[in-house]
Design goal:
alpha/beta, UDP-N-acetylmuramoyl-L-alanine:D-glutamate ligase, nine-stranded mixed β-sheet, four-stranded mixed β-sheet, 11 helices, globular
Length: 308
């Protein structure tokens, strides 16, 4: 069982010919509402890849919150641990997506920030009865710290996707088995500019020295780099046509958790997660773009035939 602790948002998506400059207004091409939130995206990705997953999070007592829960349930996510707070609105994210797939996102967390330390403590037994705990940073830092502490006390494997980027205390770092930042997030975590692969490796090892088990730095179309105390290995991205990068990181993290939960080695887990992330960017939206296991299997077979 994998437990995802994190955010649920309704994504308000506008497609534009290009991203606006500061102070500029441009005309968009189309608008839609898509279930999202990094936590919910990762939970949905895990379910679609065939693993058992439950989610701890928070929504408001409103229509958008109910839609988010129902969408997760359709994918097979256990939603009985999602709190509903009557004094908070469900979180929303405003997303601009330009025609080459790049995006800009602003999040109004709403009920995600109403998820409390006491709520997490109430779910201690849920955390204890799981194999992997996967978190992001779209809830409060107190919630993240409490969840990581409870998970490690129970001997569970922890994965933290540090998005959006925040600095983390050393007491938090020591409870993270796998950290999955992108380049920008790694810069925020370490306080230095990263413009070479060696700087990336050195920055990662600073975090490892401070307690993190290992780090996978995602680099978009450049692939990713896996860093441990003694090794560093680059993994190349798959060459696909990017339509929308939204949720690519979420699908990567979900896939990584699925593979580690079933006992795959890290190299195999990263290779699989790279395929899932690549497939995600070929479709629009957050949860709407997440691939199913059968689609990833078919993609894997297609790649094998291309190598023959």
């Amino acid at each position: 069982m994998i437990t995802v602790i994190g955010s649920l948002n309704m994504d308000l998506v506008i497609n534009t010919p290009r991203l606006p400059k500061p102070g500029e207004t441009i005309m968009g091409r189309k608008f839609k509402q898509v279930p999202g939130g990094k936590g919910a995206n990762q939970a949905a990705a895990i379910a679609r890849l065939g693993a058992d997953v439950q989610m701890i999070g928070c929504i408001g007592e409103d229509q958008m919150g109910q839609v988010l829960k129902q969408t997760l349930e359709k994918d097979g996510v256990n939603t009985k641990h999602i709190f509903e707070k009557k004094d908070s609105s469900t979180g929303v994210a405003a997303i601009l997506v330009e025609e080459f797939g790049n995006n800009m996102i602003t999040v109004a967390p709403g009920a995600n920030y109403a998820l409390s330390v006491d709520d997490i403590k109430d779910k201690k037994a849920v955390i204890q009865d799981t194999d992997i705990v996967l978190l992001q940073l779209e809830t409060t830092m107190d919630v993240v710290e409490t969840a990581l502490t409870l998970a490690k006390e129970a001997g569970k494997k922890t994965i933290l996707n540090p998005a959006p980027a925040w600095s983390l205390r050393r007491a938090v770092l020591k409870n993270i088995d796998v950290l999955t930042p992108n380049e920008t997030e790694l810069e925020t975590l370490t306080g230095g500019r990263i413009d070479t692969e060696q700087k990336l490796i050195d920055a990662s090892r600073v975090l490892i020295k401070n307690g993190v088990g290992e780090i996978v730095v995602t680099l978009g179309e450049k692939g990713c780099v896996h860093v441990t105390k003694d090794t560093a290995k680059r993994f190349h991205a798959y060459n696909v046509k990017s339509v929308d990068a939204t949720a690519a990181g979420d699908s990567f993290n979900g896939a990584l958790a699925v593979c580690l939960e079933r006992g795959d080695c890290m190299d195999a887990a990263i290779e699989y997660a790279m395929k899932v992330g690549a497939m995600t960017v070929t479709k629009e939206g957050a949860q709407t773009s997440l691939p199913y296991k059968k689609e990833v299997d078919a993609f894997t077979e297609w790649l094998k035939k291309g190598e023959e």
